[in-house]
Amino acid sequence: MTITLKKPIERFPKMIVFDLDYTLWSEWIDCTLGPPYSYSKATNSVLNKQGEELCLFEHTTKVITFIKQSLPDTKIGIASRTHTPEWARKALGLFRIPELDGITLLEAIDYMEIYPSSKIKHFKALSEKSNIACEEMLFFDDESRNREVSKLGVHFIHVNSRTGITPTQFENALQAFEKNAGPEKKLNSWTWFNKKNKNEDAAEMYEKAANTFKLAQRWKEAGDAYLKAAELYKTSQESKFECSKAYENASKCLKRVDAQAAIDALNKAIL
């Protein structure tokens, strides 16, 4: 199935930017054991020697294909704060886009800012390198805190971390961009979101700490940090999936040092 617009659009973004984790693919790559990777043509997925599989969301290649085929003047960008940028680049270089004669996802991307930092810094760099104003960019990301880029004029779209970008959401985002872009656009029209949830912000900080412990192979500390993140996510009905993933990641870490604690965490991960 290809993406077709149900309504005509005359003005498109000059750059469409994507986050990676839980936006284009279905895992947080920092929380895997990393390369060396191999590619599975049968499932269009990336696997490591430990058997972990990194998969694109269902509609990722369709969205990229639509941009490449239907929006020739629109660039594709990546803005990711991952702590393992080389892992991300390796994965991008392995994933294929069947609808575009099997070119890699990396080959389809025009600009990339992949490193731990604020998305504000990412977008300033994207704008400087491309000579495209932030007001002409559309950004898809699963983390609500990253809507801070709206301060730069970027059009922010929050992605469901369970499904990634859907065709309907993609078309609605293009429609909204056309409606809100231009000299008459008011930045406030893109800031009708609720205030940041303090518990969600704290949970994300615990996840960052857990990732740091994980990279250092300090499995107990990593597991405990993920558990704290899960408890914070649990306070919000809208963060059930994030809560479950945090418990799952805690279990993966704790199974190396405490089998029963790992089992307990995994049981809590069941939604």
Summarize the structure.
With 271 residues, the protein is α/β, with parallel strands linked by helices. It has helices at 60-70, 85-92, 105-108, 119-130, 167-180, 198-215, 219-233, 240-254, 259-269, and strands spanning 15-18, 37-40, 45-48, 53-55, 75-80, 96-97, 103-104, 111-114, 137-141, 155-158. Strands 8-5-1-9-10 form a five-stranded parallel sheet, sandwiched between helices. Strands 2-3-4 form a three-stranded antiparallel sheet, with no helix packed on it.
Percent of residues in helical segments? 25-40%
Examine the secondary-structure arrangement and name the CATH architecture of the largest domain.
3-Layer(aba) Sandwich
Extract low-pLDDT stretches: 183-196
- How much of the sequence lies in strands comes to 5-15%
Q: What is the tally of beta strands?
A: 10
* Assembly state of the chains shown: single chain
GO molecular function: acid phosphatase activity
InterPro entries: HAD-like_sf (IPR036412), HAD_sf (IPR023214), HAD_SF_ppase_IIIC (IPR010033), MDP_1_eu_arc (IPR010036), TPR-like_helical_dom_sf (IPR011990)
Pfam families: Acid_PPase, SNAP
Protein name: Magnesium-dependent phosphatase 1
